[in-house]
Structures
1.
Amino acid sequence: QVLLVESGGGLVQAGGSLRLSCAASGRTFSMYAMGWFRQAPGKEREFVAAINWDGGLTNFADSVKGRFTISRDNAKNTMSLQMNSLKPEDTAVYYCAGSRNTAAVIRPSQYEYWGQGTQVTVSS
């Protein structure tokens, strides 16, 4: 069992930056792939970024490539999403997710554990 708690959301102007963090409980964190998803009002949850179990491989949605960076610290059971050059269309609730699949998978159905979400609002 893995418990995930996100932090770091907030309100930022377009062009600004935010850093989201995800703290995980459980001794098996380092065995899991981790990901970030987001959901805007009236839209389906969508993939943002993923990182494999040891941090050596990452995947990003085309919409965030070059702007977002994902990283993890297995010694601290944490994962982060650095978001730069934010746009109003990045506004959403962001969710941290954990997958027993060790690869950097991108489908929500491939993730078994989810955080409660943190709101990110980008004003124009």
2.
Amino acid sequence: QVQLVESGGGLVQAGASLRLSCAASGGIFSNYAMGWFRQAPGKEREFVAVSSWRGGSPFYADSVKGRFTISRDHSKSTVYLGMNNLKPEDTAVYYCAAELYGLGSRREADFDFWGQGIQVTVSS
């Protein structure tokens, strides 16, 4: 069983930057694709970014491409989501997720483990 714990959220103004962290434990980190999803108030959860277990280029939602960066530190079993030029529409609860031997799926159903979520609020 893999446990995922997010951190780094908060309240920022539009145009600011944040970096979310997700620490994984209980599994072999390098065997998992790691993804980020988010859920805004009144909306369904949506894909943000994913990094395949094999490495290579990550995938991003069009809405965050060029502003967000997903990265992994295998020595710390941690995945990060760097967020620049934040907009009010980025306000959401952000979730970290892990998929065993995942190749970069954007589908929630493909992910095996989820974090509890962390709030990011961007004020205008």
3.
Amino acid sequence: EVQLVESGGGLVQAGGSLRLSCAVSGFTLDEYAIGWFRQAPGKGREGISSISSGHGRTYYRDSVKGRFTVSSDNAKNTVYLQMNSLKPEDTAVYYCAASESVRWFKMVATDFGSWGQGTQVTVSS
């Protein structure tokens, strides 16, 4: 059974940092790309970053480039999202998701078949 479990969310002041973790089971990170999405209240879900260990590639949405870093530890079957210089507009529920699609870097939610439960990130001004 494919499972993804996020952790590491919380409340932080603007300019601060958080590191989200996505622990996966039921598959290895060589088989799937992992994407990070977020959904703010009243807004749609947006893809912000993804990583394919098998292809050695990463993707970032423009709004997080230079501030967020995605990485993976294949031995631990865990993907991380290091978030620095956080802004109030980064406040959202953050989800990780797994994709077998060759289009994983386009961050289309329907290309990601398995999702975690989400973790809340709140950035105060």
4.
Amino acid sequence: HVQLVESGGGSVQAGGSLRLSCAASGHTYNYNFMAWFRQAPGKEREGVAAISTDYGSTYYADSVKGRFTISQDIAKRTVYLQMNSLKFEDTAKYYCAAAVRMVAPWYSRYNYNYWGQGTQVTVS
């Protein structure tokens, strides 16, 4: 099993920045793709960004391209989401996820075997 713990959420004014962290523990050799999802009240969970942990390839939702950056520190087994130029519509609970094997486009939640508990981001 893999345990994922997110941190770094909070409240920020529009235009501000936050950096989310996702620390992995357990059988971390067991996945090769990690992603950030978010879910706002009354909306479906949507993929925000993803990274191939083997190759470092990155993927972004159109709504965050140019503003968010996903990265990883392999030694620390941690994935980050740097969020700049935050907008009100970025308000959501953000979840970290890990996939053993990709069976669908990166933004499909069905790929991901492990999920964190989430961290709230509020933009006002």
